[in-house]
Amino acid sequence: MNTKTLCLMLMLSVSSAVLAAPDSQGDMDSRHSNRLEHLSKNLDLTPEQKSQLAQVFKEEEAKLQAIHDETQNRLQEILSKEQLIKLQELKKQGHSKWKKKLADLKSRIAPE
Question: What's CA 61's distance to the chain center, in Å?
């Protein structure tokens, strides 16, 4: 396998981990609710439209999870145990950096 392919798979894995692995399911539900409320308010959605969008977002989440799971399975087939351990560390580092950037952004937008 060439280096470009491996790097691309690593980037996809890390980014999908960040997207698909929130701190808890409650966090994900909260984000979906906030997203839906934001759209409802700004687009003046009817109750029917709001319900339909909720279903679309739920399906989107399921598809993203399926992509994430498939990527993880393929990585496990390709990488050695040592590489998988290193990959997990890279994911943790990436997630920590992402959370820090998010916190920094929030503090700039709405300082305490």
Answer: 9
Contact 94, 17 (CB under 8 A): yes
Task: For residue 2, give the DSSP letter.
Answer: -
List Cα–Cα distances, 111 to 17, 31, 44, in angstroms: 28, 21, 29
Residues sharing a CB contact under 8 Å with residue 50, sequence separation 6 or more, in sequence order: 36, 40
List pLDDT tens digits, range 17-73: 444 444 455 566 677 788 999 999 999 999 999 999 999 999 999 999 999 999 999
- Smallest CA-to-CA distance from 29 within 51, 54, 56 is with 54
Q: Residues, the chain, total?
A: 112
Q: Determine the 3-state secondary structure of 45 from DSSP.
A: coil
